[in-house]
Each structure stands twice: as C-alpha cells, then as structure tokens.
Structures
1.
Amino acid sequence: MTDTQRTQARTVTKAVIPAAGLGTRFLPATKAMPKEMLPIVDKPAIQYVVEEAVSAGLSDVLIITGRNKGNLSNHFDSVPELEFTLERKGDEGKLEKVHGSSELAEVHFLRQGQPLGLGHAVGRARCHVGNESFAVLLGDDLIDARDPLLDRMIAEHDARSATVIALMEVPWESIHLYGCAVAEETDDPDVVRVTGLVEKPSREEAPSNLAVIGRYVLRPEIFDILDELEPGRGGEIQLTDALNHLAEGKGEGPVYGVVFRGRRYDTGDRADWIKANVLLGVDHEELGQEIGDWILDFADRLRARRSGD
Ligand code: G1P
C-alpha cells in the first residue's frame, strides 16, 4: 500500500499525547525541565512517542502540556542558529538529527489549564480532534519500535467499530500501578473483549493482572462521557472511568483490548528508565558494541564485588 492509499484508508489520523504531569518521581532532574525531555540514549522520551505515532500513520500530533513545558515545544521547532553553525561546518549527520525532530510531524500544543487528571487532559483535545476517532499515547510508556502495537490497534478499531486499548499481563504485585481490565477471550489470542475497567486496584481487588498500558484508540463519544464524569481515584478525572462506562455497555460501541507481548519500557519510573537506556543502548547503531562490551565487563566486576561482600 502506498502512503497515499494508506492515508485514504485511515479512519484515525490524529494522535494526542498528554504531557502535563509534574514528573515528581524524577526530582530534582525535573525541577526545571519536563520529564518528557529526559533522554533515552540520545533522544528525549517524547520524541520516541511522536515517532511511534508517525510510524502508525498519525502525523497530526497534539501534545497537551502544563506549566514549565516550554522546552517541549522548542524541541519540535527549528533552531536556525544551531542549523547555521552545523551547515557551516558541513556536519550533515548532526544537522539531520536537529532536523529529525522538527520535520517529524505536524505537532500542535494545547495547555491543559488545570491539572485535573488524565481524563481531563484527553477531554481538552476535543477542539482539535473534533468528531473523529483518535489515538492517545502516554509518554511514560515506551513501546519498542521493533514491536509495533498502534497499527494493530487501529486495525482492530476499524474492523470492530470499537474503542481499543492496549493491555499487558503484569505481575500481580504490580497491578496496583495500572488501570486493570475485566476481559473475555475472543477467537483471536491477541484480542480480548473488555467488559470492565478499574483504575489502580489493590492486588486483592484486582479482577485480573491485565494492565492498561498507555495506548488507546478512542472514538469521539469519549468526549461527552469525560465531560460528565465525576472525579475518581485520587480526586482526578480518570480516563479509565470513562472507558469503564463504555466497557459496561453504556455507550455506543464496545471496548476491545489488544494484548501486547512485545518490548515496553516504563520510563516514568527511575529504575526502569535506567534499564530502558541500557536496553536501547546495547541495540544502538553507533554505541551498541561499546556499551555491550562494557556491560559484560562491568557485570563480571559487579558479581565479584558482590560475592566479596
Ligand atoms: C495512567 C492511567 C492508567 C494506566 C497507566 C499506564 O496512570 O491512569 O490506567 O494503566 O497510565 O502507564 P499513570 O501511570 O499516569 O498514573
């Protein structure tokens, strides 16, 4: 399929990326810098997410921001003085890296206004999205580009006229960190029918260990539901609560989940962020060999140090 045919066939063309969180888990690094700008190897986390949207055919990207997020919009702008200097030096490689983020997509920004929760942030996208289905990508979840997920979700949305969320089996002791799904099997082992959702249940209350990971393909009916929603867990307007409304059959269309079994990195957590840097570092074109060699050597030294303790 050519790019033009793909665009014509698309029912989903817009991506919304909520990025208004305060990033308190990364203080002091995030005191004056948005958490979405923390680099993973050599690119800020947000760039991976925008690249993922673009490779799923969504080149119209709306980023919902909050206070102190100026750096985010700068990252998707051109930087004439830097480009001029690199051009003068004839440094094509670096120039390409600078252009990479500014020519990636049509990136729009909208301020959330008040930090009332993820559901509220998504609701703010209505003026940009209008009466169309759209994708939501959360910046803390990084999906490895080698394991595409969003394309599959959009295909399920189209085929089933449904809201589609991404799910992943997590250890039971971690389920309290996620939205959690009540799900029924379908004929397809990668797809479940979602009949209920609960935001961050305790391990005891969790109906399953199927966690909502931060990818959603939503139908525009979500906006009316979000508008009517009372604050939920943590006093915030929860996207999970709006989806639960649909999952319980109170909306127009059903909710399906695509069960993801690929590589995902939680970059909102410090330890996982470091692991993501290592995992993507060893596979990096230019740096991989050096980092891999060093890790193997370091692992030996660490093992020796620990056994000497
Ligand atoms: C949000 C959602 C939650 C989801 C999670 C995925 O929570 O509210 O349902 O499972 O993202 O990362 P947050 O991690 O922003 O607290």
2.
Amino acid sequence: MPMKKNVVVFNRLAPDLVERLAKHFNVVQLASAAELPDALAAGPVHGLIGAGWQLGRTQLAAATDLEVVSSISVGYDNYDLDYLNERGILLTNTPDVLTETTADLAMTLMLTAARRIVELDGWLRAGNWRAALGQDHFGCDVHGKTLGIIGLGNIGAAIARRGRFGFGMRVLYTSNNRKPELEQELGADFRDLDGLLGESDFVCVVVPLSERTHKLIGQRELGLMKSSAILVNVARGQVVDEVALVEALRERQIRAAGLDVYEQEPLSDSPLFGLNNLVCVPHIGSATHETRRAMAELAVQNLESALLGDPPLHMVNPQVKAG
Ligand code: NAP
C-alpha cells in the first residue's frame, strides 16, 4: 500500500471533513499561523487546506514537498501566486458555491444603507421614537434606481439579476470584457468606470484584488459619484481607498456606503466606525452555514483530487499541473 501523504489544515474544518481526509492522508490541524513553521519542520507536507492566511515564500519555503494549496475561498489574493507557480504548487479555490450567498449580502448592504436600518435601529432602541418620523430620518428607494456593477463576473451577475428582476433596477456594468449574453439577459449597458460612477445610484464593487484593482476606487472616483449615491464593497478592502471613503462619507460627498471588507482585517477600531452613514459587517459575504459547508466540502474534494491524481474541479493555476 502506498504511503499516506501529509496534509495540514489551517483554520477550522468540520470534524467529519477532517475524518474524510484522514481516510487518505495523515492530517494535522493548526489553530494559528504561528504553528505553521513547526508543522512544516516536522516532516514533509504535501497538501494545505484552509482560508484566511497569507501564504508565500516566507511561509512556504520550508514546505519542499508541497503539491497543493486548497483554499476555502474564491478570492486568492492571500497567496503569492507567482511564487506558487515558480514552485509548481497547485492552487485550488471554491467559486460558484458562494456566488448567490455573497450576492444576497450585497443586496442586504444596499437595502440596509438605503433605508438606514442600522442607524434607525440604534435610534429606536435608544428611546428616541416619541413622535412621527420626519424627513431627517427618511432613506432612499432602491427599486427602479440605476445599479452599477464593477466586475460583472459570477457574483456581479448574481447581484445584477437581483437588482434587475427583484427591484426593477437598470443595470450598468464595467469589466475587462464585454458580456453580450448578460447584456441581453439583464438589459445591462456597458460603461467605462468613470461613466458608471457618474450615472449609478448604487455602485457595487465585485472585482478580484489585483495590482490593477488596488485602490481602484479612490478620491477621484468617489468624486465622480452622485452625492445621492451609495457604494457597496463585497470584493476586497484594498480595492477601495478607505481614507478617501471616510472623507467622502464624512463630507457627504456620497450618501452612504455598505462594507463587508476592509483594508486591514480583522478590524477592531477604525474612523469608519464613527460614521452613521456607513453599514459595516465583518467579512460575512459567504458566511452562512450552508455556504461555508459547501465551500469546505468543495475544498476537500479539490485537495483529494489533487493529491490522489485526478484533476481538481477548480484550479487557479492549472498550468502547473500541465507542466
Ligand atoms: P469572477 O467570476 O472571476 O468575476 C470577477 C469579475 O471582475 C470579472 O467579470 C472580471 O472581468 C472583472 N474584473 C477583473 N478585473 C477588473 C478590472 N480591473 N476592472 C473591471 N472589472 C474587472 O469572480 P467572483 O466569483 O464574481 O468574485 C469576485 C471577487 O469577490 C473575488 O475575487 C473575491 O475577492 C470577492 N469575494 C468576496 C466575498 C466576501 O466574502 N465578501 C465572497 C466571495 C468573493 P472579465 O470577466 O471581463 O475578466
């Protein structure tokens, strides 16, 4: 019988999935990134599975037998892809299964910011509701407005469908390439970034973080938005310049924002927290029981395939397998 390969689980994985992995592999679970050097020094590691850790040359140089990193996420900006390619290490991810859940959150942020739900919830609980509300407490409509999607990929299209078919919104989008099928399905119109920012009532950021999208939305771009517009970011925090956003919200250059992601995560204190026209949640785009389970199962399946010799369902850098 061939020797079992060794797998390190970083971050949490449900016990039954650890058991499933243990049928084929020797499995070690780590509680924190600080434990990784010891785990790698203890013997050859062939596979890593988890999410949320920065992994590149510094962390992985000692992992000389590493064949695959299976990420329980769709975004892979935590990983130094150039280094993984150089080393011939396969990276797998978990797209599709989180698309609808993340789109639900984007809609939630739009609605919550537009109707001032968090602010008015706090106001009510503080005992302020003593008479009929006046326009100082009114929000703005979502239905029938113009929704601008920056990055009409899987999640962007799912948000656009909600906007178009659920809320009768007009959809604008920008992405690397035109999407004729989605244009037809959604009646969506392509705009360059500046055009989209100027015309949209809701701007939803859903691009992957890359050198090209780092601080894609900064002071200039926020300045192009309507003063009545709402910005939602469910992509990555670094895509939006947070200092510029705080300023734009404070000065009411834009109406409001809804954020799931931040330049620094986790975030325990920030000038953002002082703004009542901001709704902020702690990176919960895919954080439902059903979806996190589906992501973990898919990541386990990707890892099993990679280490047992089948092509994984979702490879970020399939060329390393072909080479
Ligand atoms: P996807 O299907 O790959 O879609 C990404 C879209 O972004 C594509 O349409 C792409 O355009 C477009 N794009 C890339 N660079 C661009 C640029 N410079 N300007 C304009 N558009 C650009 O990915 P997805 O599954 O929708 O996920 C998108 C991102 O959301 C992920 O990378 C991840 O960072 C983030 N995310 C966050 C959460 C959360 O918990 N908040 C959950 C899941 C994902 P082309 O198709 O034309 O190349």
3.
Amino acid sequence: MALIVQKFGGTSVATIERIKAVADIVIAARKQGHQVVVVLSAMAGETDRLIGLAGQVAKHPDSRELDVLLSTGEQVTIALLSMVLRDRQYPAVSYTGGQVHILTDNVHNKARIVDIEAVRVKKDLSERKIVVIAGFQGIDENGNITTLGRGGTDTTAVAMAVALNADECRIYTDVDGVYTADPRLVPEARRMDRIAYEEMLELASLGAKVLQIRSVEFANKYKVPLRVLSSFEEGPGTLITDEDEEMERALIAGIAHNRDEAKLTLLGVPDEPGIAGAILSPIAEAGIEVDMIVQNMGVDNTTDFTFTVHRNDYGKALTLLEKTARGLGAKKVLGDNRIVKISVVGVGMRSHAGIASRMFAALAGEGINIQMISTSEIKISVVVDEKYLELGIRTLHSAFGLEGDGDVTGNAAG
Ligand code: ASP
Ligand code: MG
C-alpha cells in the first residue's frame, strides 16, 4: 500500500464525462490498495472566464476579491468528483484549501505556501476515505482566501505530497509524459521514462509547458517523486526524480525551444567599466526581463553588446536602447525579433566533453547559422533565425540519438 497524490488539470476535468473518467482513475488506484489524495484544477477555461468577469466590473479588480472569485472554480470540480465517487460507493470528501489549512503568505494572486497542517487529511486517510482537495488556493494567517498563480494546482499537489510524506505525486494532464522534444515539431520525439528534477527545471523554464516550474522546485527540494501522465490514456508516464547513473550516462535528455525571443545589439560602445550596467539599467527599470547577454571582446576600445528579451517587450526595449545609444555615443542599434532559442539539456553534460562542438557541428551541417550561445552546467542554448526552428530541433534530436534509447557514452562520437 502506498500513499499517492493524484493531480488532475483543467482539461482532465473539463466536462462531466471527464470528471467521471477521473473517478475511474481514482478508483483504480484505490483498488490497488493505495491511499489516495486527489487535487483538482477548475474546469478548463473556467479561471479565464472568471478573470473575464472581474474585468467587466473593474478596471483593476481588487486582488483580494479576485482570489475569492478565482477560488470558486476549483470548488466546483472537487464537489462534483466527490459526488461521483460517493455515488459509486467510495467514501470521498472534498475540501477547499482553507479547510485543510493550506497556509500561504498574503500576496494575493501569487501566494506562496508556507505550511500545511495535514492532520485532518491523515485522519480521513486512516479511515479509508478518498480526500479531494481544491488546488491553486490557500488561506493567509488572517483567514483571507489566496491563490497561487496560474497553474498553481501543480504546486498544491506537490506541497500536499510533501506534507503527507506521499510515495508519489502523479500529475495527470493531456500529454502522456515529458518528451525528448516537442512531438508536434519532431515526429520521432520519444516519451522519457525518467528525467532528473534539474533537467525538468531547465526544460520547463525553456518553454516545455508540462508542469508549473515552482512545483518541480518544490518536489526537488523535498525529493518527492513526481510522475507526469495522461488522464486520457493509460501508460507509465514520465518519472521525475533524483539523478541516477543511467541519466548521467546519456549525453542529452531532451531539447527545448522558445519562440518568444527577440535580440537587441548595440554596436561600438566604449569598452569601459559601467557600460553593461548603463545599457541594462533602463531595461530593468522598465520591468523587462533579459535572458541571454553576450558582450564581445573589445577592439579599439569599443565593443558590441547583445541581449535577448521576450518578443512582447521588443518594441519597448528597442526604444529604450536607442535612447541609451545616443547617451553613450554608440555606433548603431540593431534588433531582430525573428529569432528562436534552441537548447539541449542533460545532466550527462557534467561528465562528458564535446557536447557543444557536436551540437554546433550538427547545426553547421544543415547550414544553420548560430547567432548567440549560452551555457550552464547542464544546458547549451543557441539563438538562430526562426526559420530554422524545426530543422534545428530535428537535426539536434537525431545528432544526439534521441529517437532511439538515447545516445550513451559508449557510442558517443564527440
Ligand atoms: N485553475 C487555475 C489555472 O487555470 C489553476 C490550475 O489549473 O492549476 O491557472
Ligand atoms: Mg493547469
């Protein structure tokens, strides 16, 4: 017997039919002898609908009241699922976040969980009840309802798993696991059986939108095994867990991409202290997030400075940069919002040399020009023209043998 937390997202509870299908999954786990805690999202589209309603009554809806409103979405699904389960003679009980003391800070609309008092849930479980909890919401120390930010139900589920010391936290969604690349772009992409927390964090922050990043950080910190799997079809999904030997042996776990990038370059700025700060301060003050930064080596006391921002911020950043350029006496400002970032990710990089050269050679083989490069311990990212997005990912996918069982040290070429 294990204690399992099962989380179902909005598409998994989008209709009454889907809620009944969720009940089947819950009952199946129960029949295997497990203790089951279920954490639910609102029906797909419901949170957006509620935000839309708020927007119709106020230009800037009060954040506390918005949380009172948004938390209702999840209250609907937990009640409905519990009714279905009870109708099938399973003793289910639903709770809002506040009822099970999911204590958060008081930052409305993006609160953080600070504590969960699991006593009530544990008692229910010991009485063989199925506990159904509303995701995405909590309560602050003054009893105000809070919400955790979009996608927050993942975090509720993981936090609940931590509080209950669960054996596994299963995140049911509309995909059957985490893939080596986006299967819509790479038909050969493969579902991974296992992936390290750190790899998942890199893949998630790079645009693989399978899980809320914060939930993975949480799972990593408390070492709760997380499993991503489909509520639409049976299968083992992908287990997200601590690094193991097999993961270290693989060169690359997967490839992520991000289409939302734009790059800006300042040519011929003085090569002296304070320049990078002078360029980026106005950008930061405007609340624009900077992703990659590259500064060239200086020649003749001047240098070139390039950085990337979210595509939505491109126009604003360009205007700011042109102003800075005049102040600094820079030669020229260049911008390009038709770029994408492609990244290879894998803990295997720590123990293998030559991954970067292999990556660059593969791209060169297809005539793909690399505009920028950045690296971290387990990731190499390149910026390329957006027209090379698909070709770039496919090329790397096959260069690293990801369509098979993954390339391992033994037959690595580079
Ligand atoms: N219902 C919330 C949202 O749509 C929370 C979640 O689904 O995780 O963001
Ligand atoms: Mg969701």
4.
Amino acid sequence: MKKIGVLTSGGDAPGMNAALRAVVRKAIYHDMEVMGIYNGYQGLIDGKIVPLDLGSVGDIIQRGGTKLHSARCLEFKTEEGQLKAIEQMKKHGIEGLVVIGGDGSYRGAMALTSKGFPCIGVPGTIDNDIPGTDFTIGFDTALNTVIEAIDKIRDTATSHERTFIIEVMGRDAGDLALWAGLAGGAETIVIPEEPFDLEDILSRLRSGHERGKKHSIIIVSEGVMNANQFAELLKEHAQIETRVSVLGHIQRGGTPTARDRVLASLFGARAVEKLMEGQGGLAIGMRNHQVVDYSMTEAFDGKHEADLTLYKLSKELAI
Ligand code: ADP
C-alpha cells in the first residue's frame, strides 16, 4: 500500500489529534503517503481531501478536538453515498482508510470494507462504550474533566451543606459516571447498567446526614435520566432539596491527558501497520494493557460491559 487516507468521524474526543499525528507519522516513516479527509464521511463524499506531510500534524498532539473536523453524514448511510466515497478515494489514489471515531463510524468503515475498500477503526469517544476494547481515546481526559468539576462542586456543597446531583455524559454506558463517582468520592452513582433503588439512596443520604456529613454528591449518568428529573424524584419522595449541575460539552473538550495521548499514538500506529499488511475490517483496542486488533463486527455485535466492581466498591467506600 503506497497511499492511505485518514478521517475523524462522529462525536469528537480529546486525543483524536494525537491519533491523527500517529497515523501520519507512522505511515510516512514507512514511505507511504497520507491524505487527510476533512469533515468525516461527508468530506469523503465531497472530496475534501488534502495531502498531509510531517509538518501538518506538528503541534497538535496536545490539542483537543480534531484538526480534520468531524461531521455526521446521513448520505453516507446509503449505498449511493458509499460508492461516491469509494470513487473519491480511487480518484486520489487512496488504497486504505483509517477511521477514528465511535461505533457509528465503525459501521461506515465496515460498509466500505465489505465493498472491497479496506478500513481500520480506531476508537475515539469519551463514552468508553466500544465493545472489544478496555479503553477508548478521550475517556481518560473526559474523566479528569469531570473529576475537576466534582472537586469544585464539592467545595460549594460542603460550604452550604447541600446535596448536589451532577449529570455526566456517556450515552448508554455508565463508565464515565462510574469512574468519576469512585474517583470523586460520590455518595451515590446512578448508571444505566444497574437499576437504582430510591429507598436505598434515601436511606444512605439520611444516615450520612445523621453522622454529620456536610454534603452529598450524586452522579447521574445521562443514559438513566437527566439530573433535573432525578432532583424531582428526590423532592417528590423525600422532600430533599438538591442542586443540579449538568456538565455538558465541557466533557468533550480540553487538552488530552498523557494517557489518552499514549493510547492514541499506540492505536494510530497499529492501524497503519494493519493497512500495511493489506488487512481491513479490523478495530484497534487495548485489552489487559496490550494493544490488540480484532474484527470490527465484534465491535458492533458485541456488548460493552461496564466494570461493575467499581460500582460495588464505591458503595462500600461511600458508607
Ligand atoms: P459515532 O461514530 O461517534 O458513534 P455516529 O453514530 O453519528 O457517531 O456515526 C458517525 C457517522 O458514521 C454517521 O454520520 C454516518 O455517516 C456513519 N454511519 C453511522 N452508522 C452507519 C451505518 N449503519 N452505515 C454506514 N455509515 C454509518
């Protein structure tokens, strides 16, 4: 393979730039050319394709977001859109593609691979919800952003002796809430993977209060319900007044952590190696601290499992 393409797609995540840099530098190191595709699959259809040299990915390893921009593209879900995309890549002499994104982006990559155009998926999403990998690029940065917010909210919660409900992202995965809840010392974590017991939550709040706890932090994953709904529940059932904080899009931005940059570098490089071997339809991931590659179908047929030992432990530690 002499020329490859790279794009970022779906929701952006900190560390996507570090992955892009790794793809470009690794490929050039092995005497390949790299074309950058702007705006995800939309840009592929529209031919927003430019050559990337070593310098074009300089000074981005530390930047959040994605230099190639991202987009959601309905047309690409159609056969016609996919054929247009392949046509564009042929026109530019591109023989293989690295797709950095979430599971939706993987489906697009698989569609191209099924049509004979090899693609490799690199998991970039703050949600950590891609089956087959222990971690995705962006999760660690988002987690640290949430922790910083929890620490700040805790200061005001303590000063005013308040119960705070903090809503975090994660779509249908509770990972961000779980890890943030444990690391932030939250009294309660509410995640989609575990049904919550309101009575249990209330009795924990009461017993904490009785032994002199000055505040309580409840982390609610967006996949369960929004924080205002949860606040209503507590008010209705126990007349508990709470304050709500919805962290929102700050979780998607910011300088990637060292851990995300290392993950992105490892994943980007492995993706290029797979294309060099002439392989397609694979996803890159991390399992037990080892970089792995596996069939992309596993990534959307499988189910992501949150680590529920964290859930159990956080309950034990927040008595
Ligand atoms: P993410 O990659 O973060 O999960 P999306 O689910 O929005 O984000 O997917 C990103 C893009 O991938 C979509 O806008 C679309 O262009 C493409 N895509 C998603 N699902 C499919 C599919 N089933 N077939 C082809 N392309 C898809």
